[in-house]
Design brief:
The chain is an alpha/beta fold. It has helices at 3-11, 24-28, 31-34, 54-60, 72-82, 114-117, 134-148, 174-181, and strands at 43-47, 64-69, 87-91, 94-99, 102-106, 122-125, 153-160, 185-194, 205-214. Strands 3-4-5-2-1-6-7-9-8 form a nine-stranded mixed beta sheet, with helices on both faces. The longest helix is centred in the middle third of the chain and has 15 residues, at 134-148.
Length: 221
């Protein structure tokens, strides 16, 4: 998607994709990302994080959370809702908002490097892959592999008839996730369930939850 598309969504408060109470699948399957590394506390990367309530939950589990988000409005609202005042600094490709164990890079995720974010224990992708059109998904997944050095992942996605409604969020099937990540990960769909009320109340959809276990860990030097 063009950057202006997402900037306008946040500027106009058109954020129906935002879950105000967090995601139940994170709580249900948290062990997948919290127990992947001896590192204490876990360092969880949340790509395209917006102002998700999931961040507050991860922080409550004594995680360090590293987010990446294009919209500065979203991140300003995130810290406001957390009730904390961040320090803000510039980095090579944008701004960094930081307070205690939460760090969020504001800018184009494709400009981030592994040196920017540091070592990552696991990735929690609830709203990133489903936010991207098909043309960008391979670039995104390759970047995540390099950026996090093939850290384990928990992915939450939707599956529905894309002809019935345009995204985002887009339909991202099990076959799609497997094709994108199988070179580096064992991909397992651990839940497929009906999305109650449909997607945006318009189209029948399923929730899909995936665990991605790395085939091997990339060189972290």
């Amino acid at each position: 998607m063009e950057h202006n598309f997402w900037h306008s969504k946040w500027q106009n408060n058109e954020i129906g994709f935002h879950e105000p109470t967090g995601n139940p699948f994170l709580v249900k399957y948290a062990d997948v990302i919290l127990n992947t590394s001896p590192a204490l506390p876990p360092r969880i990367f949340v790509p395209l994080c917006g102002k998700t309530r999931d961040i507050a939950w991860l922080l409550s589990q004594q995680c360090q959370v590293i987010g990446a988000e294009l919209s500065e409005i979203a991140i300003q609202q995130l810290f406001e809702e957390l009730g904390v005042i961040p320090t803000i600094r510039e980095f090579a490709h944008g701004k960094v908002y930081q307070k205690n164990t939460l760090t969020v890079f504001v800018g184009d995720i494709f400009t981030l490097t592994k040196n920017d974010i540091g070592p990552i224990s696991a990735v929690y992708d609830r709203a990133a892959l489903v936010a991207l059109p098909e043309a960008l998904r391979a670039q995104y997944t390759q970047h995540i592999v390099a950026l996090t050095q093939c850290a384990p992942q928990l992915i939450v996605s939707f599956e529905y008839d894309q002809n019935a409604m345009p995204g985002p969020p887009f339909s991202v099937s099990e076959d799609t996730v497997t094709a994108l990540y199988r070179e580096h990960y064992k991909v397992e769909c651990i839940e497929r369930s009906n999305l109650e009320g449909g997607l945006k109340g318009k189209v029948n959809a399923n929730n899909l939850v995936f665990t991605l276990t790395p085939n091997k860990t990339l060189d972290r030097k």
